[in-house]
Amino acid sequence: MGLKVAKFGGSSLADGIQLTKTKNIITADPARKYIVVSAPGKRYDGDVKVTDLLYLCKAHIENNLPYEQVFQVICDRYMAMAINLGVTVDLFPEFEKIRQNLQNGASSDYIASRGEYLNARVIAAFLGYDFVDTEGLIRFDAKGRLLTEETNEALAEELKKHESAVLPGFYGTTPDGKIKTFSRGGSDITGALVARAVNADVYENWTDVSGFLMADPRIVSNAKPISRISYKELRELSYMGASVLHEDAIYPARLANIPINIRNTNLPEDTGTMITDGVDHGDQVITGIAGTKDFDVIAIYKNMMASEKGFIRKLLTILEDYDVGVEHIPSGIDNISLVVSKKDIEGKIDDIVDEIRRKLAPDTIEVFEEMALIATVGHGMSARQGTSAKLFTSLAEAGVNIRMIDQGASEINIIIGVINSDFEKAIRVIYNAFVE
Ligand code: ASP
């Protein structure tokens, strides 16, 4: 029969109708024993997620504005859900406790975490599963970094005692007992940690799309679904902007070799995308294309650069001193380019360039703005000759100027830089060249 951990996102839990679909999915397969939940998401376009309402409460308090009305809206959503589902869980003491903590200056992480906490309480009662709080089980160090192994042991130890359970996603605790959340969308990470702790056969991640598509459907309208993808390929794609699954959710699942299956709560018959270790794509050359706009490129040329020891280290130290991360470093014998995100370098670029001039005396240094990066990813590329030729020829024929090329040695990823205004066109051209 196997054992499944199923994580449901906010849209799957937004109201009574969605929760009923979720319950049907869970009861359809007795292997779905451990359920991880997000906070209720949007019920319709223009609706507000509970997590955002909770952050709003905190913002009101910080600005000395009355927060009660917003808090009441949140309580009402849970009450309506509980009544709708005929669940008899007493939420009033919970609301009261949260209200008290809010008044006493509780942290933003604590407040945000209550969305998942309350939801897990309601859903555990609805399913007749145990409620297991992740407070004290998911552990962070004092600096807020996840303690992966400690967490694994604590979760495994606790979950042994429960045949089936609902756990809130998104948060854990620091050594001083304070609640700490992951970054937004972090319930995906909780799901992966739980899957590893119980040694699940599969980690199902239920959302409102039937898995990954080969390209952003807002750019390629009929983009094909990806039925299988490797952890590595997905990592390359999520890093570049494909955002169905929190990128940090891949690591714990991969560590235990647990496949992740992205599924659609609204179309449960779709098999979705399966993320596993090695994937044989058959004849298929590329698995997906993803990209992000708004990078700057600092291009540096210096004669005999290659023989100047410590040049790259000094260069990177300057960026580090300004707290700017570097995305890519394409280089030649006497030149090097640093690709940095615009929002990271905004307001600092002139100072950085001055400092590079002073410390490294390059012959020329130029900054190219408005660059977009596009990653074409696929294990199928590594075994085949002519993949890059096809990619570059099709772009050239379409009149897209490639400003930068970066291909890792693993050959599962070719990254190109184009100007922002060519971004969408370039993705469509690559898609048509390889897929259509
Ligand atoms: N509720 C949190 C958010 O909206 C976490 C999650 O849903 O994964 O980001």
Task: Give the arrangement of secondary structure elements.
Elements: E1 4-8, H1 16-28, E2 32-37, H2 50-62, H3 68-85, H4 92-103, H5 108-127, E3 130-131, H6 148-159, E4 165-168, E5 171-173, E6 179-181, H7 187-197, E7 202-207, E8 228-230, H8 231-239, H9 250-255, E9 260-264, E10 273-276, E11 288-301, H10 311-321, E12 335-341, H11 342-345, H12 349-360, E13 364-377, H13 387-397, E14 404-407, E15 413-419, H14 423-434
Parallel strand pairs: 1-2, 1-7, 2-4, 3-4, 7-9, 8-10
Antiparallel strand pairs: 5-6, 9-10, 11-12, 11-13, 13-15, 14-15
Aspartic acid binds next to loops.
Q: Can you summarize this structure?
A:
The longest helix is centred in the first third of the chain and has 20 residues. It contains 14 helices and 15 strands.
Describe this protein with a few key phrases:
binds aspartic acid; alpha/beta; 15 strands; 14 helices; 436 residues
